[in-house]
Amino acid sequence: MSTSSDLTSIVSLLYGYVLLFPQYALAFWQHLIHLNEWFAKLSPKAKQTILDALNFTHRMVTAVYNYLLSIYPAIMRFGTRDIQDWQQPRALVLKPLSSLVLFFLPVSVEWGDLTVVDKTVYVGNSSIYGFETISVLSSIYQSNGQWPRLVADPMHFKVPFWKHIWELLGAVSIEEYSKLSQASKPVLLLSKDAALLKAFSEQDYQFVPFSNAGPSDMLRLIAQVPYNPRNRSHTLPLATPTSYQRQYAVFGVHTSQDKLDNALITVQQLALQRQQDAGDTRYLLGSVSRAYRHVFKPDGILDKSLRWSLQTAKNASVRSLRFVAAQLEDKKD
């Protein structure tokens, strides 16, 4: 891609941010104008010194970035093993881990008449950030001793250390699903992708539909934020917590692929009904939920704090540059 095209993509991405967060963009633009007006009044020597300092900082950041890029492949390869070699961690690890997860993210689980078999795919839908993933995995383990292998978005496997943690817990990139379907291990699938379901069905896997009510009610989606200048369809959800609730999960019975859609609708309705029947008792630590609503609401504490931080950063930058300029003027005299 040409430099001109790169620049156009970046400008387009920044413009998209302006549309998503107009209040912060306006404050930033006003501070930038004030800073530019102040910079214009400096002497040529002071301007050159500041520019030299910025260029030096840019070179240092670039050098660090290039170094991290050079070691990135080695870090990502570390600890990588064949998908079929993975074994479920011992109970010594999973029992305290799952208990800790369910202590902080409690789940009320209802199971169908289910026979535990290795070739099982637990199929459900994902909420924002896959918030319920770890609590669902923990609930399954606490109920029947299985720790299913999660089929996750490839993005999770491009982040050092985060990738290693999930691989240790058996997670596999969705790009590797064909290998996973041959491993004869229980699987957690937060998708109804037809190709995925067909691959597991051809390997004689049975499907268990599930639904988990609660996670989506604990988060408020603010925006889908693009992070790739070259492809703005790649986005990350930006959300804030709104409450702290118990989750209500319902697991169905083994079913075939052609009956899966209806089974998913049934368990979803049951999970929502259980959540509604719980009423206000589903809220945990009411003071925490009230605090979330106060802190994260539009024009709440967090929103005001961000704007205050922008103003503070601008003032601190101006004071620092003024001090540098004053010292340079004194030396000149």
Describe it for me?
- The chain is of the alpha/beta class and 333 residues long.
- Helix content is 54%, strand content 14%.
- The protein contains 11 helices and 9 strands.
- It has helices spanning 3-20, 22-40, 44-77, 91-104, 133-144, 162-168, 177-180, 194-202, 260-278, 286-296, 301-332; strands at 107-111, 120-123, 149-152, 172-173, 187-189, 206-213, 219-226, 235-241, 247-251.
- The strands form 2 sheets. The protein has a 7-stranded mixed sheet. It has a two-stranded antiparallel sheet with strand order 7-8.
- A hairpin with an 8-residue loop joins β7 and β8 (235-241).
- α4 packs across α5 (133-144).
- The chain starts with a helix and ends with a helix.
Quickly list its features.
333 residues, alpha/beta, 7-stranded mixed sheet, two-stranded antiparallel sheet, 11 helices
